[in-house]
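MODEL INPUT / OUTPUT PAIR
PAIR INDEX: 1
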Amino acid sequence: MVKVSLDKLLEVGAHYGHQVHRWNPKMSPYIYGKQEGIHVFDLIKTKRKLVEALEFLAKSKKEGKLILLVGTKKQAKDLIKEAGQTLGIPYVSERFLGGTLTNFTQIGNSLRNLGSLKDSKQRGEYRNYTKKEKLLIDRKIEKMERMLGGIVNMDRIPDVIFILDTHKEVGAVKEAIKLGVKIVGVVDTNSDPTMVDYPIPMNDDAKKSVEYVISLVKEALRGTSTTKKQIVKREKK
């Protein structure tokens, strides 16, 4: 089981929320008080909810559930990408495209198109194209890889989605709710925790706070192994 440190939560500033006037009243159960016009989280409750969320993620991975990581804000995007690549699970670190979940068939078509473009390039099918045409194709591939590269091997709708900043990624939240995908989400004081199955009430803006929670998620998912055998098994089907 992943150990969550109360001292570390304090050290990384996980207790600092947004300015009081920006709050969502539904976050009140997790707020300790105010400090200089800023809401402060009750870190005892933060730790409890964080442990619950991490245990659920670890259990889901162990059961072979497909987990998607989402975090596109600048403090999180590189960390989410690294986590997804390290763990071998799908991730979205650039903009969450509308329909990623609810219109997965169309997303699948886009992924196949990306694969086709890359295969054609590798086979040298564009060698007789003009320099400008080749450049346009390269740019198209680059853009598609940036937007879809993290989910290129996601062969079905995920069972669980981890979202860093559910307020910013509300589109992902709504799509997950519509499809019954379980949501684990970091919720700051401006978020609605009732939209999330496993809310993690804490600062989702401070770099160190973001780094800490993503490191814990990585540890929870790395400590279980579903893994490559099940992924390979799915790919063979």
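PAIR INDEX: 2
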Amino acid sequence: MRDQEKRNEPDVRMDQAAPVSDPAVSENETSLSEQATQEKLIAAEARATEMQDAFLRAKAEVENMRRRAQEDIARAHKFAIENFAEALVPVKDSLEMALKVETPSVESLKEGVEMTLKQLSSAFEKNRLLEIHPQAGEKLDPMKHQAISMVPAEQEPNTIVTVLQKGYMIADRLLRPALVTVSQ
């Protein structure tokens, strides 16, 4: 009988050992789980720090670009007429030279004025300052012409009869309209 009891005892022990868990194993699993969570937290914090650093760098770069663009615009405004001014300097020089002549003849004055006008016209053309010089009989264009008066004429209504003053455009922008009289 004792043999039977001995045989039964290990069975009982095994049955008893199964429901009882080992506290060292449970603590080890919890410790591993906490360690993995801690590592994930550290990695997430490192990633957040990297992202914040990248954000701050991008923000600073955008601010620098905005500042440089504003400086470029300010510089462009400041020197916008530089080319035009350079083209006008020879015109001024010519006029000053004409005034220095002691006893100019009418012919030499006329020749000097014609040369100065050519220089000025060249400066205008170089800087895209274009003349608006409408011809009699052209249709009135309110975007380029300003009618000063209406006169009875045999022409079609709203056509240009006479040009009182030329107009000017810079590139595609009206600087001064041509002053004209138009037919009724």
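PAIR 2 NOTE: Helices lie at 2-17, 23-78, 82-100, 106-126.
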